[in-house]
Amino acid sequence: MAKSKSDALERADNSAAESSSGRPDVILEFLFDCGTFHIAIRNIGDRPALGISVKFSRKFTGAGDKEFSELPLFKNIEFLGPGREIKTFLDTSHSYFRRKQPTKLFADISYRDSLNRDYATTIKHDLEIYRGILYLTGEQGCAGKAN
């Protein structure tokens, strides 16, 4: 029985890999690094993604009280090649949490491939996991880190 369960899992893994190969696969991530938040839109697929748009479940603001959820960046990215990303600074984690910005967000991402096939995915984010994480600053920490 263990062998058949293992075989079934391997077939499922192979099937998932085959279904996503040869196509774009766009994700949005909130990145935490040395006390800062960035947002990255990435095409982790192996074909270009066209007409990318992202809609967030809640409005949120970043540094300088700029409303990030409505930036043109999230309205229409005409082209994002395979393995490429667009990354933008959002805010420091301290400032984001101090201003009581939403921590649970859904990102609805839609895009198409060069054959005009439509794709959509929803990614759930919970920034609360980063609250209270300790990080070093100055010479011992992130200040000297090359970006």
Structure write-up:
With 147 residues, this protein is α+β, with helices and mostly antiparallel strands. The protein has helices at residues 2-20, 93-98; strands spanning 26-33, 36-43, 49-56, 77-80, 85-92, 104-112, 118-126. It has a single domain (24-131), classed as Immunoglobulin-like (Sandwich), CATH 2.60.40. Residues 8-19 have low confidence and may be disordered.
Main attributes of the structure:
three-stranded antiparallel beta sheet; globular; alpha+beta; 147 residues; 37% strand; single chain; four-stranded antiparallel beta sheet; Immunoglobulin-like
Entry summary:
Helix content is 17%, strand content 37%. It is of the alpha+beta class and 147 residues long.
The end-to-end distance, rounded to whole angstroms, is 50 Å
Q: If you compute it from the alpha carbons, what radius of gyration comes out, rounded to the nearest whole angstrom?
A: 18 Å
Query: Given the C-alpha coordinates, what overall shape results?
Result: globular
The total count of helices amounts to 2
Give the class-level CATH name: Mainly Beta
Number of strands: 7
Judged by helices, strands and strand pairing, the structural class is: alpha+beta
> What is the average per-residue confidence, as pLDDT, rounded to a whole number?
86
CATH architecture: Sandwich
Q: How much helicity do the residues have?
A: 10-25%
- The CATH topology annotation reads as Immunoglobulin-like
Q: Give the quaternary arrangement of the chains.
A: single chain
Largest sheet: 4 strands, antiparallel
Helix and strand element order: HEEEEEHEE
Portion of residues in beta strands equals 35-45%
